[in-house]
Amino acid sequence: MRIQPNGTVPALKHGEIMKTDSKDIIQYLDEIAPDAPKFCPDPSTPGGDRVVYLTELMQKIVIEQITYGSGCHRHHTHDCKMPKMFNMEEATKIWNTVDDEIHKLAAENPDLQEHYMAKLKTHKDRELTSEQGLIDSLKACDPIMGEIEKELEQKWKGKLDNFTDSDPWLCCDHFTIADIYLATLLHRLYFAGQVKRFWGDGKRPYLAAYYARVQQRKSFQTACGPANTMRAALMPRVRHKFRKAFPRLLGYSALALAISFAVYVQYNDFPSWWPNNLKIKF
User: Fold this and answer.
1) Residue 92 has pLDDT above 60, yes or no
2) 95 burial type by CB count under 10 A (0-12 exposed, 13-18 middle, 19+ buried)
3) Averaged over 70-89, what is the pLDDT?
4) Neighbours of 271 (CB within 10 A)
5) Which element (helix H / strand E) includes 17?
6) Residue 9 half-sphere exposure toward CB, CA atoms < 13 A
7) Residue 40 contacts residue 22 (beta carbons within 8 Å)
8) Cβ neighbours for 161, distance < 8 A, ≥ 6 positions apart
9) Of 207, 205, 145, 180, nearest to 29 (Cα)?
10) Is residue 177 a contact partner of residue 55, using CB atoms and an 8 Å limit?
11) Predicted structure pTM score
């Protein structure tokens, strides 16, 4: 929260430079590597205007609503990859856990209380488990996917496989911020069981080809490969439960060790280093 008062990620610190917004970070990477292809090309350059337009278009998709909603209302999904244990009950627990954690952090950091309370209000205002919210978000996403399909069709002109490095991406001949958004969006929709709705069964062949192509990129495999897995989905909850249970586990472990030692010395002699005034058997 001290780095990013809005309480969001990501954040990048490079020397004395701090960037706390995804787009700002990517633009900064363009600045420090001037000779590399631009993630955010000038809007006046060929394809640059489409990068801006399609990136802003994809930002309108409420992917959090689709993710949470798909886990809670699986009859709106097909072959959902989210763990079966993630359901409405579990989502509510996670939601309440976040509330508790924000209150705790606000109490521990009074100088940041205003920021934490603002984060809490934002958190409470979002009904991500709502079925109607999921339905509305899916409907809003569909025409955006349709527009991206048309963009890819114009770029690839019938080509759906056997891509090479010379083949263009979504907007330009090289990978841009629009591709970063689209790649992560498609990967999340896959995880949420929404492939059939948006590009499966030949519905949007160019989107399907794009997703297959982007998965071959080494950078995608490194950054996104582990993201939508059961481990990634469950670890935050597991870590929270372990932190809460750790003091109790520590106490149980100490008690078990004491009982084990007492039983041992009851039937065996004390270790040589044990003080004589404490050699007491029951």
Assistant:
1) yes
2) middle
3) 88
4) 10
5) strand 17-19
6) 1
7) no
8) 209, 212
9) 180
10) yes
11) 0.76
Please give the pLDDT value at position 180. 95
Phi/psi of residue 105, nearest 5 degrees = -65, -35
If we measure between CA atoms, which residue out of 42, 38, 49, 50 comes closest to residue 150? 50
More confident of the two residues 50 and 258? 50
Judged by phi (left if over 0) then psi (alpha if -120 to 50, else beta), residue 47 lies in left
Question: What is the residue whose two structure tokens read 């705790």?
Answer: 104
- Residue 75, pLDDT score: 95
- Residues 188-204 have a mean pLDDT of 96
The answer to whether 174 and 37 are in contact (CB under 8 A) is: yes
Q: Which residues pair with 19 in a beta bridge?
A: 12
Structure tokens at 87: 């359901």
The b/e string for 126-154 (b: 16+ C-beta within 10 A; e otherwise) is eebbbeebbeebbeebeebbeebbebbbe
CA distance 135 to 31: 40
Q: How far apart are CA 183 and CA 40, in angstroms?
A: 16
Cis ω for the linkage preceding 205 (within 30 of 0): no
* Distance between CA atoms of residues 7 and 9, nearest Å: 7
User: Contacts from 131-137 at CB under 8 Å and sequence distance 24+?
Assistant: 131/69, 131/72, 131/73, 131/76, 133/62, 133/65, 133/69, 134/65, 134/66, 134/68, 134/69, 134/70, 134/72, 134/73, 134/76, 135/76, 137/61, 137/62, 137/65, 137/66, 137/69
- pLDDT of 244 reads 59
Convert the pLDDT of each residue in 20-67 to its tens digit: 888 889 889 999 988 989 999 999 988 999 999 999 999 999 999 999
Q: Are 229 and 82 in contact (CB under 8 A)?
A: no
